[in-house]
What we know:
The complex is a heterodimer.
Chain A: H1 6-28, H2 33-55, H3 64-81, H4 88-114, H5 120-147, H6 161-181, H7 189-204, H8 212-234, H9 237-260, H10 265-270, H11 277-282, E1 290-291, H12 294-303, E2 306-311, H13 313-317, H14 321-333, E3 337-342, H15 352-359, E4 367-369, H16 370-373, E5 382-386, H17 395-398, E6 417-422, E7 442-446, H18 449-465
Parallel strand pairs in A: 1-7, 2-3, 2-5, 3-4, 5-6, 6-7
Helix pairs in contact in A: 1-2, 1-9, 4-5, 4-8, 5-6, 5-7, 5-8, 6-7, 8-9, 12-18, 14-18
Chain B: H1 2-12, H2 19-30, H3 34-43, H4 47-80
Amino acid sequence: MTTDFAGNQTIIEIVYFIASVLFVLSLKWMNTPRTARRGIRAGEIGMVLAIAGTLLHHGIIDYKWIAIALVLGTGIGIPLGLVQMTAVPQRTALSHAFGAFCVTLVGTAEFYLRSPDVPRFMMAVLSMEVILGSLTFTGSLMAAGKLQEVLPQRPITYKGQNFVNLSLLAIAVAVAAYLVVHPGARQLFPVMIAVPLIFGVLMIVPIGGADMPTVISLLNSYAGLSAAAMGFVLESKLLIIAGALDGSSGFILSVIMSKAMNRSFTNVMFGAFGQVQASAAAGAEEKTVRSASAEEAAGILAAANKVVVVPGYGMAVAQAQHKVRELYDALTKRGVDVRFAIHPVAGRMPGHMNVLLAEADIPYDRLMEMDDINGDFPQTDVALVIGANDVTNPAARTDTSSPIYGMPILDVDKARTVMVIKRSMNPGFAGIDNPLYYLDKTLMLFGDAKSFVNNIVHELAGNAHG
Amino acid sequence: MLAAFIGFEVIRRISPLLHTPLMSLTNALDAIAVVGAIVLVGEHKSTLSFVLGVLAVIAATSNVVGGFLITDRMLKMFKTSRPTKP
Lengths: 466, 86
């Protein structure tokens, strides 16, 4: 049977090669928004080619179930592709979980098909595939749960946590090592899946909301690496390439994210902010803040020449991006120069704020990266902070005892006036007090981001008419 | 290795503006693992590999479809913005 289809094998190789090239191009075109959609097309075509090519595979005898599974998967995929933009972080986490689930299942099936005749190298990559896959599966589910707020967002820490986690990982690696030497030990294989599954849960438990951008990137990287490992097991260059692309993309993003928080990987993974909360919160009393109404805020904004809006996760939670757009329109109409300062870790995943603001139709050339806008704050009349906290905390520059000391921040405190829309004086996720709020030039606008921005817009409109 | 290197070079140049769509795109591409799963289902070598394969195809396909769909939706939004504003 196989010899008849030797020609097919060549075709499949060629098709896979084209698909790989398309995948690389697809990422290359993601460079700028101008060519990005072309990138998607390339990716889609590559994917369709790859799947079609696979169907030519000589060993395939059962097409019915492939079709059923493809249709079912599509049925699940469509609603997942149509979620609200604010739900993108948890959707992404969920899709990491699905990807890892797939890889783990395939790895498991391959093991039981091949055992006990598994060469050592094969067994080593297969172990890597399954370990990374299963820890990414539960880890991503946990992350999605936290993002969706089904699970508590606060980091949960306990004594000896790191010891427990590292021991679990060590057990998994030890089992893998044993299997490399004795691939016939089938009864050990479930252990190698179960232990990382538990590890995945425990790994995410101590991680809080603000660390999510890093963690999501890291999980992205793991998912990619496990797929690349699967590529080695199946000897598929296409899979190795796609997996490596995903793995390195996730890795780069996590490095960018960690840098943006001035923390190392290990710090994010093992050093939950939990411990410092008590001391930081204690010093928060006895300081006064100045608050203002929407009317006053509108007056100040209308009189300004340059306004920089600093959005954060609070804007996403309040779904305020469309109101922010109205504010942007109202101010632009009055000749005010409005720009948006986006901190790399604002929100819950890399680039989260950009997507939300783009959803609200705010032109992307108004969205500035931290390094590009920080120098402009001294010339800025009003910095309007909407639902952001730690990324504006000047303590990161000055207070060596602050847990976020050294983290690059947006220098909003250098603007002439700072306005902060915030629901209450409760410190943000990290429980770190923000000295910005007590500055003389800072006005606190207490309220829900959406309704408050709405009120400002109304005031601006009212002024225009009266 | 080479792929990782190319990936590294290509991705480093992507602007932070597009990090979210980038991640959902790589996610969709990653679901190419579906090819391995399809072979498992198609070859039907054992009941276990068949069942696991079907589940894997479902999971990966949902990633392919969902991933491309949402990435496209995001990028469409970036496109409607007017890059030449005063």
